[in-house]
Amino acid sequence: MYTMPSPSVYIFSKTLLYYIKERERHVSPFKQSVMIIHNLGYPRIGSQRELKKACESYWTGKITLDELQATARNIRLQNWALQQQKGIDWIPCNDFSFYDQVLDTALMVGAVPQRYRTLQEKKIRETDLLFAMARGYQRDGDDITAMEMTKWFDTNYHYIVPEFTAGQTFHFFSRKVTDQFLEAKKENYAAKPVILGPVSFLLLGKEKTAGFNRLSLIDKLLPVYLEVLSQLTKAGAEVVQLDEPCLSLDLDEAALQVFIDTYAQIHAAFPQLHILLASYFECYGKNLPVALALPVQTLHLDLVRCPLQLDDILETAIANTSLHLSLGVVDGRNIWKNDYTRSLQQIQKAVSVLGKDRIAIAPSCSLLHVPCDLDNETALSPEIKNWMAFAKQKLQELKDLRDIVNGNTALLDTNKAAIHNRATSPLIHRKEVKDRVAAFTAADARRNSTFPVRQNIQQQQFGLPLFPTTTIGSFPQTDDIRQLRARLKKGELTTEQYEAAIEKATIEVIRWQEEIGLDVLVHGEFERNDMVEYFGEQLQGFLFTKNGWVQSYGSRCVKPPVIFGDVSRPANMTVRWSSFAQAHTDKLMKGMLTGPVTILQWSFVRDDQPRSTTANQIAWAIRDEVVALEQAGIKVIQIDEPAIREGLPLRKENRAAYLEWAVQAFRISASGVKDETQIHTHMCYSEFNDIIEHIAAMDADVITIETSRSQMELLDAFAGFKYPNEIGPGVYDIHSPRQPSAEEMISLLEKAAVTLPARNLWVNPDCGLKTRKWPETKVALSNMVRAAEVMREKASL
Ligand SMILES: Nc1nc2c(c(=O)[nH]1)N[C@@H](CNc1ccc(C(=O)N[C@@H](CCC(=O)N[C@@H](CCC(=O)N[C@@H](CCC(=O)O)C(=O)O)C(=O)O)C(=O)O)cc1)CN2
Ligand code: MET
Ligand SMILES: [Zn+2]
């Protein structure tokens, strides 16, 4: 909820007031006489995942760089043509990326970490350098680790974390931004370059040397941005979108001052350039006065996440300035059809204060986070499909909204009918589900005994060695495995044939794990397309799409299920595969489930009830599955919650409430079993330091967690907090094809053993192995088991 900032924030800077006045003197060269519609970014994977396929083919040497570039260019041209056709006035360019827009920005400003210099000296091509930074490079005697990757705000998109060192310098290196502007211009598109702004670029990165603040690099960075803007202006750019999503975070006054100074300098250098400043995913909150005072022409507001800020903004001095507003009324984070009545209220309110010519309308954020085209979904129930909109349809919604503002009321009536149909549909509600969630008592979220009691029982029962080894669940999802599923779908395989092939793969992976000496085995998850989609397909209240792909990182995509109604579990979901696997080994076989918060977070969620209610409905369904696994003789059950940190609200003031229901949902799912049953959870891809006590409150017997890319930095937080339960800090990065040596894993384990009691330590990779190939997986895991053995020997000396 938006609250007005305290007056002290308004007046903390004299410079700020000066710039407000400055801007009022300035008359925008951008003559708008109608309401603009624009877009912040379009999905770049291609509506048939063309980019994913081309990148992966390039990485395996099946196509050339020229062929990859040609695919990329086609995607850009198609996206621009589509947006043009939908009447979008400012069409984004430079929103295309081969991997990630933050990495692109690092290359733009020449922020290439030292360890890639040898590649630059060898004059490898820019795109290859980009891929090396993203994925690591192990070839021709070079062995260079990848850059770190982390969650993009509260999304399932991951960006490459810029690395900064004291004394770092920048220069205009990658020309992608100007090249792509010129490419669009050549095709006669009114392109608006989209660039991650300099302050957020610094804030999103990490200091790699001690004793300095990365924001202090702004003086060196800004000249490069000015150079970029100068090149763009020379090339004919009239509007430039600078994304500063860090304005959605809690910022201190020093950071806000950097915003003020930076944008003042940009304005001073380019007084005629129309800068559109975009932040999204949250309210501007306490940063609002600064945001409103920055000398930019247009300020973008995410009115989906923060509808209330519109009143505050319109009520303040804004009516007296020349500032334009971009109203983000169409949800860029979800797939529900826009409620035109609601959007029009917001648009008309703004128009009545500022006039049409000072209003643009847009999606709330880049459309990167939604699938491309609902028209490709031919198997959806027509009723539910009529409630939905993907990226292409969202462009149409912008056009419709403008047409309605201009008098086309028929469009409004059609929309009202769809919104009404969804609100009143019997498909959504199931009384028994609501009743069960409502009957919750505290005991439902508590294991029978405390952790120390459970730990003794479990250690006696299992007799595992010190530093027990395990993996996170999935083994390589080879093309062969995916082909099986594709052929099953096409009817080329019967269910029996499909299952026989999956059984064979499962038995093979069990034998192999036994051979190399892993302690707690997994079945490999070969039967799953994705850890969330697989459950979505089996739960009621969910629907799944055929082609609703969204980029997660690099070439990796997900097809989030859609939660449209009350959730229940009509039948066992994983018991068949887990008991099959346990029957084929005398070792412990881990059952493998996805937790309620992650299923919620990685789905498109209904927006007609609180997320916490939906999370609880999923929690009860997972709990039933956990109990069913226990009854089937599975003694170790992992409930993955990799997305628990991702769901954390961006603003601190909203976090406690979220953590309370999220932790409780996990505990509901985990608390139906006996003390003897060991519950694992797994988390990856985030900074966990700030929620460590809540992770402890989840009370899983074992947590396996990603730590290797950050060299076990995370463990200091666990140690500092005296994390009570067992923990497996990931000893190698599974997101890179690079093969880790036993020695490097031993050194990480030694670090871990200094900070945490050896009795509580497990040995495992950072995450599941589904994205890896077999050869590297075999080497890596054999080395990992050897590392554990060395640790055991050292401990016994
Ligand atoms: N939902 C989710 N979010 C997550 C993760 C995750 O595992 N799941 N992991 C973290 C990192 N993100 C990741 C995201 C995706 C993948 C991933 O491996 N995705 C696969 C797709 C997985 C999938 O659903 N596969 C389906 C569909 C496979 C497919 O592409 N089939 C072909 C057909 C095959 C053929 O005919 O050749 C097609 O549809 O074109 C299946 O196995 O059945 C990919 O992009 O390659 C990994 C990590 C964080 N977020
Ligand atoms: C993104 S977390 C992945 C957990 C899952 N069990 C796997 O191994 O793939
Ligand atoms: Zn993981």
UniProtKB/TrEMBL annotation:
The keyword Nucleotide-binding does not apply. Keywords: Amino-acid biosynthesis, Coiled coil, Metal-binding, Methionine biosynthesis, Methyltransferase, Repeat, Transferase, Zinc. Pathway: Amino-acid biosynthesis; L-methionine biosynthesis via de novo pathway; L-methionine from L-homocysteine (MetE route): step 1/1. Its cofactor is Zn(2+). The active site is at 735 (proton donor). Zn(2+) 1 binds at residues 682, 684, 706, 767. The keyword Methyltransferase applies. GO terms for molecular function: 5-methyltetrahydropteroyltriglutamate-homocysteine S-methyltransferase activity; zinc ion binding. Zn(2+) binds at residues 682, 684, 706, 767. It catalyses: 5-methyltetrahydropteroyltri-L-glutamate + L-homocysteine = tetrahydropteroyltri-L-glutamate + L-methionine. SUPFAM superfamilies: UROD/MetE-like. Residues 38-351 form the Cobalamin-independent methionine synthase MetE N-terminal domain. Its EC number is 2.1.1.14. Residues 481-515 form a coiled coil. L-methionine binds at residues 472-474, 525, 640. One of its GO terms (biological process) is methylation. 5-methyltetrahydropteroyltri-L-glutamate binds at residues 49-52, 151, 156, 556-557, 602, 646. It holds the Pfam family Meth_synt_2. Residues 467-789 form the Cobalamin-independent methionine synthase MetE C-terminal/archaeal domain. Belongs to the vitamin-B12 independent methionine synthase family. PANTHER family: 5-METHYLTETRAHYDROPTEROYLTRIGLUTAMATE--HOMOCYSTEINE METHYLTRANSFERASE. Catalyzes the transfer of a methyl group from 5-methyltetrahydrofolate to homocysteine resulting in methionine formation. This is 5-methyltetrahydropteroyltriglutamate--homocysteine methyltransferase. It comes from Chitinophaga ginsengisegetis. The lineage of its organism: Bacteria, Pseudomonadati, Bacteroidota, Chitinophagia, Chitinophagales.
